[in-house]
């Protein structure tokens, strides 16, 4: 494994920890600042929206510097944001710190995906992206539970100081381990923006929003579902979240490996499996053993889509992939926010917590339809080219009237370019 991937994974671990650890600390934060828990929930919402806005903004600002230097600046911003949160005298300042930290999130993963793909051979790019995202998934298994325990024992401010320390470690790793790759020649902000005219890029981002939204429709309301419907004690929820995180780690690694072989078939299988498992969750949520197994499966299938979705964007935006890659990270968070909002509407309408799983089924099914449309358009775009190639090769063979001409026609039909 290139050491550059290790540096990216360390940074991803810190970012993943700060994104999700706040969920377990909301009651403490609310008590300290004298606000309600729903108001404290703005620390989650504000972070997600900051990722959506910050991804394209910070990437656009970074078009004039090398990718390594931009990654270092982003980790510095992440450290500052978490220190602001740790020292916040009032709730508004802590919210501002969360937003500052979130501005680094999308651009780090977006630029990091491009760097990860560049430091390995083309056949291993999805696996390299998965290695970076392993830091994010491991954060859900290790960083978030430990951060919650530290916050409950020593205070939530200590947790954010530790997270800032992780950011410093990530910054040093980027500075020492990532090569100073030059910016591609001729690529400007205008070139980066131009890729959004590509329908395949937009379809890939639509798959990201809907596919990952399907995951978070269930995950957002997992705790009340497990306690009120399944019958788990409050103290068991932490282990269920660890189980979810383990599924994420496994799915991310397997998804990256399989996507390097056959990206779109693997993506469609993961999205179809996710929709099926979410539908089953409406039944298995009433059984402790069944719920535990389903939680792991949701994490695995959900994060199995992450490497192929990110690589799909990189492939379709080839030549100017950095901004598109970062915006796609924002699309993951947009899916999270969309799913949480729709799920909240369903619960507020008087439905059971398990009803949010049908929201997830609908979103994952929508992503599957977009994947099928993308494949169909891609095949349609290739077909005329093959016809033209066959016709031209056949004409060349007829004009030559010899064995070489026949070989040219046969090579073109097979999709092989003859040597000059």
TrEMBL record:
Q: Name one GO cellular component term.
A: plasma membrane
Q: Which domain of life is it from?
A: Bacteria
Instruction: Please tell me whether the keyword Transmembrane helix is annotated for this protein.
Output: yes
Query: From the UniProt record, which GO molecular function terms apply?
Result: transmembrane transporter activity
The answer to whether the entry has keyword Oxidoreductase is no
UniProt cross-references to CDD domains, sorted A to Z: MFS_NepI_like
Note the Gene3D superfamilies from the entry: MFS general substrate transporter like domains
Task: Give TM segment ranges.
Answer: 38-58, 70-93, 99-120, 127-150, 156-178, 199-224, 236-254, 266-283, 289-309, 330-349, 355-377
Record's PROSITE patterns? MFS
Question: Main location per UniProt?
Answer: membrane
Annotated localization: Cell membrane
Q: Which InterPro entries match?
A: MFS, MFS_dom, MFS_Efflux_Transporters, MFS_trans_sf
Instruction: State the annotated membrane topology for this chain.
Output: Multi-pass membrane protein
Q: Where is this region: Disordered?
A: 395-420
Q: Which UniProt keywords apply?
A: Cell membrane, Membrane, Transmembrane, Transmembrane helix
Domain Major facilitator superfamily (MFS) profile intervals:
4-382
Q: What is this protein called?
A: Inner membrane transport protein YdhP
* Lineage summary: Bacteria, Bacillati, Actinomycetota, Actinomycetes, Kitasatosporales
